[in-house]
């Protein structure tokens, strides 16, 4: 088993785009990375769902990865999003990817194909064998249309040494508890849902890969750190204070809400690539109001 990294708060990093031509805004990306690092988070997730990697070209993804690695400059571990619904294509990509500065990959369950549990085991075994760095499974059935069961997760955890954890975003707390109850030593269970992070931490989870932490990195990482130390009395009010914003940023999908919030914070220009579109005026106003309310409670 690899060293016990990827605990605490990881940030599912967004990708700022310029308003004109929708090209990557590397200046804003650098500023956001520095803001996040200086706010005390534990690691960064590059090119995950929140990054809009699905609408980037291969050259853009490579350029963003290289830029993030150079900007982070070994100050934090980096987990790279690398998954898909074609196992052979993933293993081929793994063979061609530059893993300098990358500590692990985050690999989503195959989407659209809807493989059964045996297919998921075979898929992840192939990915784990091909990956030169540790693998964190990403279970998000609301996006992929397939759920990785607790039994399957535990099979992979016990039989594939290179699979070191799971980002669990099923929303099924019974499933989460079964994984936590039976997982082998060192296997990380990471919340993939900001709003469920606090309850998952009280059950023994190892942290979160967070969207809201793009905008509230200090607040989220402080809450997670307190809860992981068992100081639930201090962590719970922080959780409830952030909860309205955690929920609202997903009202119209991700990263639609978080980008609207980040623009209000003056950190980025709110530009998304089709088929994603900007937040409605109604949601934008709601996020501004909730943000103002949040800040007033400080």
Attribute tags:
298 residues, TIM Barrel, 8 strands, alpha/beta, 12 helices, eight-stranded parallel beta sheet, single chain
State the gist of this model.
This protein is α/β, with parallel strands linked by helices.
Structure description:
By secondary structure, the chain is an alpha/beta fold. The protein has a single domain, classed as TIM Barrel (Alpha-Beta Barrel). 46% of the residues lie in helices and 12% in strands. It contains 12 helices and 8 strands. An 8-stranded parallel β-sheet has the order 7-6-5-4-3-2-1-8. Helix 1 (26-38) links the parallel strand 1 and strand 2. Helix 9 (217-228) packs antiparallel against helix 10 (232-248) and helix 11 crosses helix 12.
Write the layout of secondary structure elements.
Elements lengths: L7 E5 L13 H13 L4 E4 L11 H15 L5 E4 L5 H10 L7 E5 L8 H14 L4 E5 L1 H4 L5 H10 L3 E6 L4 H10 L5 E4 L5 H7 L3 E4 L6 H12 L3 H17 L7 H9 L16 H16 L2
Helix pairs in contact: 1-2, 3-4, 4-6, 6-7, 8-9, 9-10, 10-12, 11-12
